[in-house]
Amino acid sequence: MTSTEVTGEDSGPSGYAAARLHLLHQEAQPGPPRRAALARLTDTWLAALHASAAPPRGTALVAVGGYGRGELSPRSDLDLLLLHDGTVDSATVAALADRVWYPVWDLGLALDHSVRTPAEARRTAADDLKVQLGLLDARHLAGDQALVSGLRTAVLADWRNQAPKRLPELDELCRERAERQGELQFLLEPDLKEARGGLRDATALRAVAASWLADAPREGLAEARRTLLDTRDALHLVTGRATDRLALQEQDQVAEALGLLDADALLRQVYEAARTISYAGDVTWREVNRVLRARSVRPRLRKMLGGKPPVERTPLAEGVVEMDGEVVLARTARPERDPVLPLRAAAAAAQSALPLSLHAVRHLAATTRPLPEPWPADAREQLVTLLGAGEPTVPVWEALEAEGLITRLLPDWERVRCRPQRNPVHTWTVDRHLVETAVRASALTRRVGRPDLLLVAALLHDIGKGWPGDHSVAGETIARDVAGRIGFDKADAGVLAALVRHHLLLVETATRRDLDDPATIRSVATAVGSPATLELLHALTEADALATGPAAWSSWRASLVADLVERVAAVLAGNAPPAPEPTAPGAEEERLAVEALRTGEPVLTLHAEHPTESTEPEPVGVELLIALPDQPGVLPAVAGVLALHRLTVRSADLRAIDLPTELGPAAVLVLNWRVAAEYGSLPQAARLRADLVRALDGSLDITARLAEREAAYPRRRRGTPPPPRVTVAAAGSSLATVIEVRAHDAPGLLHRIGHALETAAVRVRSAHVSTLGANAVDAFYVTDAKGAPLPAGEAAGVARALEDDLRNR
């Protein structure tokens, strides 16, 4: 007996288990050969089990579902049907089932089993769509072959006869699953089976083809299905579990098992497969609905119209018409003579919110000659029109991309296509994010003088992510080159390059730098260069953030960016930023300082601020004002208390106020913080004050309390985060030294940083805290004891000490 043979003499679990183990780890090549070999091995074993039970006539063992298709992954369950013709008594059938089922269970394999007559199987299928789909792949394993053939014939006939009713049910089932599981091609931890574009959708397309009502685009579909099955096989072997979810911590091992470079290469391959299946599904279900609509026309009306209703063709653009709800090529179109036609057809489809016909896209891909370089003005205008159509741009762009037209028009697109973004803040892959940014920018075109530059910049702003190094720097060069190739003049190409180079400038400066510092405003004005570019950059910043995900934009961020833009615009208009002057304390700050001096203890107030001229309920932030006598340890104490109360810090401003007393001036610290509740409502000011008093007098051990909470409610972490990095920002401010901290966000991080800065004997003038997903990027304006910026050597030493402190905790 070879390792892939199991006979009746060795049909027990141990014989099959040994042969199975040998097959999975030593014999067959991975991929379809191994799955087929595993199915054959399992077929032989189950047939031997069935034969050893001396089965009566009129019974058969049938594989259904994935096993019926021969798609056995290492940990797949077995879908089995014991079929009988109804003439065998129930006790005999039950005994036969036990002789087959129990050895499977003894081996620890998952088993989905049923015992039915053909009539019962058909009735169950009529009531349960999933059962019917499984029976479409029914395959004889042992017993009465004619019984199985009869069932297959009847089930296929039922499926085809009931297709007008069952296919809409299947379509709805796929949509509901997509809503629950998301789109596989954009998920960092995708479910290879259940997510949209996964194996279940590929199986649904097989069922549509079996109905003879419509068929899926075949090109690339089998290879996409194979990619997902190969990935699932590797996942099962790596984890030793029957799982379809490709978790982050297992992706490197799965990639290695498949012979891929790394987890990013794995995800990109999986995303490409999912995109192929998703696009095939879109086309197929559109065709199904078109056929069903046509069949719903009343027979009498058909007869009145001569047997076939006329097909209307509505002109949309030169060489482009609408027909039966799709955009197709006009009969007079000549793609081989009209290189702009693909863009013109795409723009017309997007502007009309109609899908591009699969046949039209494939015909364009096969016959259209390349555009000359630089592009003619008409081609560039059609691209801008396509990008400016809003949401309908996305499916049209995907149709072009599915047939390779996008990379033909924009070769640099290949490097970002299906490229994953390993940051939970990002909703999309790089390429889809770029298209989504253009969609968001299309709603902002009325705010800018050059909407064409805004839309193209939105499409290109992350194009450098396919290259090593800073993607903004790489993207600047690529954008300039692309702009020239698609026909923009040198000046416009320079603007596009600047927009790509600085697309993060406004939001990073607004959230991480002191906007009252003239050096901050001057540096942005110098980088931007002109009011027109600033206007475009402001709109691009908003579109980029909105297309990134819900964590990347808020009223608070919008207000900070708008404030920065207003100040920079004033400088670009010739108005110098005001010289830094100590601002007088406000009335409330002075009142709190006097009270703190009188009592010798902290006093504080909390109140929410909302955006000006806005009906949005979301507050810009909650202002927390604290005044207390000047003393060491204030910053870590306040930060720690806020962390204990689950308040997220957005910014902090610290200053000392000298108040007159009988013994001379006395220093009072006033802290102005912007905070937000992590969840739930804000704590009471009295509780904050009480805990702050205890933190300052040493009776509240903040470090221990935070550690206790972390131990009681540990946060789930996927993988090991990169180590923290602390740097000194070059020329960040003329008023202070700017120390920037990049670290994994965690409760108490600001408390730890404040403690380390206190230990370094520097004064913190202000702090600007920015958190995106699991990443914190905090900027601290620090001075020496006299309020002056730190010398370069001392600043570098403080940064090193802070980094060492954070790494060692």
Automatic annotation (TrEMBL):
Residues 1-315 are annotated as: Uridylyltransferase. This is Bifunctional uridylyltransferase/uridylyl-removing enzyme. CDD domains: ACT_ACR-UUR-like_2, HDc. It comes from the Bacteria. Keywords: Hydrolase, Magnesium, Multifunctional enzyme, Nucleotidyltransferase, Repeat, Transferase. Residues 623-709, 738-809 form the ACT domain. GO terms for molecular function: [protein-PII] uridylyltransferase activity. Has four distinct domains: an N-terminal nucleotidyltransferase (NT) domain responsible for UTase activity, a central HD domain that encodes UR activity, and two C-terminal ACT domains that seem to have a role in glutamine sensing. The gene is glnD. The lineage of its organism: Bacteria, Bacillati, Actinomycetota, Actinomycetes, Kitasatosporales. Belongs to the GlnD family. It comes from Streptomyces lavendulocolor.
